[in-house]
Structure formats: C-alpha cells, structure tokens
Amino acid sequence: LLTTISIERCLSVLCPIWCRSHRPKHLSAVISGLLWCLSLLLNMLGYVLCTVRPSARSCHLLLITIGALDFLFCTPLMLLFSLTLFLRVKCSSQKLRTGRLFIVIMLTVLFFLIFAVPLSILILFDFLGYKFLYSPEIGFVLSCVNSTLNPVIYFLVGSYRDRRIKFTLRLAFQRAFED
C-alpha cells in the first residue's frame, strides 16, 4: 500500500491536470482492494503450504517469492516515486505547498526503511541460505515498532499546527488526511 500511495501522490504532483481529468474516480479504491486480495491470497497460500499441508519446497519457494516481491519490487518502486516526489516539491521553482499528507508519507516511508526493511532483508537472505548473527526476533520487534509508529505519525502531524495536543484522536486523523 505504501508503494501505491507513493506512486499516486507522485503522479498527482507531476501530472495534476491528467490526474484531475483522466484518472478514474475509483482507481485508488480498486487498486487498494486488489492489493488486499493479493495479500490475503498470498497469506492463505502460505498458511496452507507452510502449516496445514507442509511442503518444505513449496513453502520455501513461496516465502522467497514474497520476500523478493517485497524487497526487490515494492520497496525500490516506493523509494523511486517518493524520492521523485520529494525532489519535485523541494526543488520546484513554483514553490508548491507541502501539506500534511506529504509529511505523513515522507515520515512513513522513512520509518518503513529504518524499521521494516531490515526484517525483509533478513528473511530473504535466510531463505536463500545466508545466515547472520542478527537475531530474527530483533527484526520482528523493529517491524512491530514500524507498525505502531504510523498512528503516532498521523496524530502528531494532525496536531502540529495547533501546537496543542488537547483534542481527539479522530480530529488528528481528520486533519492529517484533509490534504
């Protein structure tokens, strides 16, 4: 989802007229639904191949495929489009307004790289046969930290302009996504 959000946000900044006039209205909802279905399918397949009907070769192949898809396809795309967006907004001669959504996306991508990517790298290398002294539990803890940081980012970015945090969490989320 972070990859598709990065791509969509980048396209809306680079090609705003095309996005407003030619982009299908429900494209984001359809793509998000397809990604959720793909994730559900891969997780169900993993559950069946690795737990219910264990097949070491099939399970191993599926986990390598998921790791490669995550690390070699989604993460580089997310980085490419996020970096493109960042450079376009910061180096523009037109001084585009950087909204809260831009800050949320950049912080989310940054924390994803710091906390979630190490686990993906470890899992991929582990299944390829490379062993490290690095404990997988540390990778899982970092991944959990990444997941818990996202609501904190939304809350802090949503409450940033008021300089006070004496309002509801709902209002913070609403302000973070109003852009």
TrEMBL record:
<feature type="transmembrane region" description="Helical">
    <location>
        <begin position="27"/>
        <end position="49"/>
    </location>
</feature>
<keyword id="KW-0812">Transmembrane</keyword>
<dbReference type="InterPro" id="IPR026234">
    <property type="entry name" value="MRGPCRFAMILY"/>
</dbReference>
<keyword id="KW-0472">Membrane</keyword>
<feature type="domain" description="G-protein coupled receptors family 1 profile">
    <location>
        <begin position="1"/>
        <end position="154"/>
    </location>
</feature>
<feature type="transmembrane region" description="Helical">
    <location>
        <begin position="137"/>
        <end position="157"/>
    </location>
</feature>
<protein>
    <submittedName>
        <fullName>Proto-oncogene Mas</fullName>
    </submittedName>
</protein>
<feature type="transmembrane region" description="Helical">
    <location>
        <begin position="61"/>
        <end position="89"/>
    </location>
</feature>
<dbReference type="InterPro" id="IPR017452">
    <property type="entry name" value="GPCR_Rhodpsn_7TM"/>
</dbReference>
<feature type="transmembrane region" description="Helical">
    <location>
        <begin position="101"/>
        <end position="125"/>
    </location>
</feature>
<keyword id="KW-0675">Receptor</keyword>
<dbReference type="GO" id="GO:0004930">
    <property type="term" value="F:G protein-coupled receptor activity"/>
</dbReference>
<keyword id="KW-1133">Transmembrane helix</keyword>
<dbReference type="GO" id="GO:0005886">
    <property type="term" value="C:plasma membrane"/>
</dbReference>
<keyword id="KW-0807">Transducer</keyword>
<keyword id="KW-0297">G-protein coupled receptor</keyword>
